[in-house]
Amino acid sequence: QVLAYNRHTFATASQRLVIAVTPAPGGEAPFQAEFLVGNRDVEELLPEAAREMFLQASAGLWERGDLHVVNVTSALDRGGRVPLPIEGRKEGVYVQVGSHSPFSPCLASAVSPQSRARCHRGQRPLASCYDTFAPHFSIRWCNLTLVRPPCPPGSPMFPLCPLVSPVSTLPPSEAPPRELLSPFLVTLLVPLAVAALLSLLLGHLMCCRREGV
């Protein structure tokens, strides 16, 4: 149910939409990569043309052609900060791309322990495919997340299967309620008490310290 209101007349309207969700023809993509695009807002990547351009850049990076966009999320919804009102500053957007093909060696090297260590030192991770997104998309490679399907326990590749744990997309928990009465009273009563003492002192000096009194 979508609710809307007119800011000028405050009139409201509602409409109920029925959305049918069907599985993808080939099933859910088991290999997914999530990129943080720093020079875009979420509205700029919602049109199909922009997503196709991003998929073309991802295809050159992934070395596969069966890519599709799984999710597009604003960085503000993932704990990002609102940018300063300066021209050219963007909110940032997370774009999740899926495929049925394994990751390319470049993507795997970008999330390797050596690359993570370089990110902690403020350096770029080890990868040789940065230029596939330039100049349209500025990817923050230290925020790259790869999710691959789990391997069965008896698989010989089992130790190498959990490449990177998926990032939790749950919203932050609500802040606990705070007691604001005591700080409010202190903030209000202390200046009033000081003002009352100063008023009494001034009144005493002006009324009781006059000549002849």
TrEMBL record:
| Sequence ranges assigned to domain Sarcoglycan alpha/epsilon second in this UniProt record | 29-147
Q: What is this protein's name? A: SGCA protein
| The keyword Transmembrane is annotated on this UniProt entry | yes
Keyword Transmembrane helix appears in the UniProt entry: yes
Give the transmembrane ranges.
180-202
One GO cellular component this record assigns the protein to is: sarcoglycan complex
| Keywords on record | Membrane, Transmembrane, Transmembrane helix
